[in-house]
Amino acid sequence: MNGGDPPFAQRIAQVSESHTTRIFTRAQQMRARGRDIISLAVGEPDFDTPAPILHATARALADGRTRYGPVAGEPGLRERLAAGFEGFSADRILVTNGAKQALFSLFQVLCDSGDEVILPRPCWVSFTEQIQLAGARPVLVDTDAGFQLDPDRIAKAVTPRTRAILINSPNNPTGAVYGADALAAVAAIAAEQRVWLIADEAYHVFTYGDRPHVPVLGLSPAPDGVITVRSFSKQFNMTGFRIGYVAAAPSVIQALTRLQSHTTGNVCTFAQYGALAALEMDPALIDRRRVALRRRRDLALGLARALFTCAGAQGAFYIFADVSAHLRAGQSSADLALRLLDAAGVAVVPGEAFHGPGHIRISYGCDSATLGRAFARIKEGIKEGL
User: With a threshold of 0.70, does the pTM exceed it?
Assistant: First the structure.
């Protein structure tokens, strides 16, 4: 065709590539060329997927669970998930292709063009892009110096165009676990203003004693206005299975199911049987992994604080380190992240990806020995001026 390719839709031109994907891809390319790269960039602990999950998935394959299933999810899995929420039944659960698809679909069914969604900042990389793909506008509201919610700022950000407030605790990228008082205050704001309150709780099992995870659903004066999104990916090391779910009022689930019937249809049938097995496992396994992650958190936080200023880190498996003191004039944390990768062979994610400039996100999902080697490289690189 003369003049080049036909044009793309404006909506995709407005969406940025994921910084996490960009760093991960570059690290993989460097590894392929023989470089020894330590990745502290990927939000995925190095634990194996538990054997009962693998066995149940293989059994489902052997039993012929390979055909289309119900769009909203296998009935047994929906019932089991509903049992985790007081007073819920299966019609309040939708199984999705990971939490990421759940959130994307939510913005599609909740938002019209020009609507607004309030996001505490820093925030996960895909929130803003997914909101924009729905034709809506992300409204970023700063957290405090410890990355905790500021209900007053959130209240002031509400306008007649506000459709939802999104809360992510434990938080990616900061590791902050939001306090019950602040969560209750935000839940009250959402109820009073009659806007949806979306709780992204993908990391809900990973807190380390400093502050427990508090489900916002139990704090809201209008629980049918709360939408909870969770995932099997982090909790059970099932990232490749792509199993997430939404717990919400039946009307929300019906709207999401209608959309999902035209997008993905059902989630992978046999993978859902692996998810069902995950829910029947001895909780002690997750407890042991939480203990291991806490040890890694303590090690990584100590090493990070010897180099940077760090707040948050009460949950998930991230440290959001303030590296502004180590930035050269005119440079960003994205520049520092590239220098760390190229010069020190350590991959981290720049804070710009999360609307938190001057920071880097460090994942402590790898083993303690690897963490020690990574921070030794970072320390040496900073000492030499990178």
Answer: yes
